Amino acid sequence: MKHNSIMIKLWSGIIITILCILFMSMFFQTRFLYSFYFNEKVKEVEKIGQDIARALGRNEYNFNIPYVDAIKNVNDMIIVTDISGRITYITGSVDYKQGWVFGLKYLDDILDGEKIQDGNKMLKGLDSLIIGVPIKRSQEPLWDVKQKQLYENEIESRALQEIIGAVYIVTPLEPLETTIQAIKIQFLYIFIGAIIISSLIALLLSHSFSDPLIKINDAAKEIARGNYNTKIHLKSSREIITLGETINNLARQLSRVEQIRREFIANVSHELRTPLSYLKGYTEILIDGLAETDSDREKYLNIILEESERLRKMVDEILHLSQIEAGSIQLKLSSFSIDALIKRTIDKILPLAVKRDISIKYNKVDDDLLLCLADENRIKQVLINLLTNATKHSYDHSNILISSYRLNDRIYICVRDFGEGISEEDLPFIWDRFYTAGKSKDKSIEGIGLGLSIIKSIINAHGCDITVNSVKEEGTEFCFWLPSYAEN
């Protein structure tokens, strides 16, 4: 499996995303928990220190009475000092003794009546928290219980207080760190489990997503090799299924285009071979002097001329379409009467229709000249091609109907025949190059399938559109519109 495959990229992306989320969760969670537990520990120790300091301030304890009932943790160390920092009582440590000096760096804050908070390694070299609380002597009058409670709430009153020492409590932080470490270990197990589960899910998701794409890619390669019978059957999301159907439709379209291309090559080969054979054959007759009379020579020369003109027409059609699609032909816009142009075109095509007893009828609603703003020569070419096609595919003894009318600022022209029609299967391809549907009833007007492509290119070059409606065995109608001409 390639390292840059979409399956590996999807799997890696999902795993990295999950790991980032877990890592961030662990980082913020442990930081938050440590801060929370630490603050709670500070509050707890401060409360104990304040209880002891308050009791000492009221003379409820003397310095010889142990403070066992105030100690919540057997590992805590309690130190009581006087106003000069000399230890008057100590419990929980053998490293300090009564009468020693302690906490001189905190003494100024204590004398200002402030609490202190610091860290050290006083307890067996472990990280410890030290909390210091000043001892304030209370000159409490003899009040009733309610007044006493009010007094305790207002104990901060400076008039009734005098700082006589400090209470320091040192408590180890090891339990807190142990708790955080345990949480980290739990997160490690969660990491491992999440990686395993997410890996399986990521593999399934990436496989379900990449497998259809691999099938589509394989099908595209087959189409590129010319195998247009490739079919894709997918069971995936709606978007992937739609993409597969698009590839299938592309294969069908390319198959149709390939069929049209082959038909065109066959048609062109046939169309070119016939006039070239005539040219070669009659030219050899003239060169060899086999034409016995002047009338024979004239006849042969006329055939050569007709076949040469036929070849020129085919080449002109191909070059003309290429020039239009390349945009190298500039339209020469002018105002002209589409009514008059239709009548002239009918006169030109009528001899071809008369051969098969086909009548051409022109239906115009009123006497409007139907002035258009377009390239008259190009529109004439469009009409000739449409009427030629209509004659080509009409049944003998049938009719061709032409209608024109004005609607708002547009002039519409429709050409309808009652002939063989176009099948629903062929209809989407009629504008393609070299398309031919059926064979002409009159071999003299057989084409090579460029007429409709030229028509559509000319109409689109004017910024207009052309449509077609057809029913097999009933006939076909082409309609296009042009902008009407106005003086302003």
TrEMBL record:
State its location(s). Answer: Membrane
Entry EC no(s): 2.7.13.3
Alphabetical list of PROSITE patterns matching this protein: HAMP (PS50885), HIS_KIN (PS50109)
Which enzyme type, at the first EC level? transferase
Q: Name one GO molecular function term.
A: kinase activity
Record keywords: Kinase included? yes
Histidine kinase domain mapped to chain residues: 267-486
Where primarily located? membrane
Classify the source by domain of life. Answer: Bacteria
- SMART domains the record matches: HAMP, HATPase_c, HisKA
Reactions listed under catalytic activity: ATP + protein L-histidine = ADP + protein N-phospho-L-histidine
Q: What Pfam families does the annotation carry?
A: HAMP (PF00672), HATPase_c (PF02518), HisKA (PF00512)
- Domain HAMP spans what residues? 207-259
This one is known as: histidine kinase
Which species is listed as the source?
A: Lutispora saccharofermentans
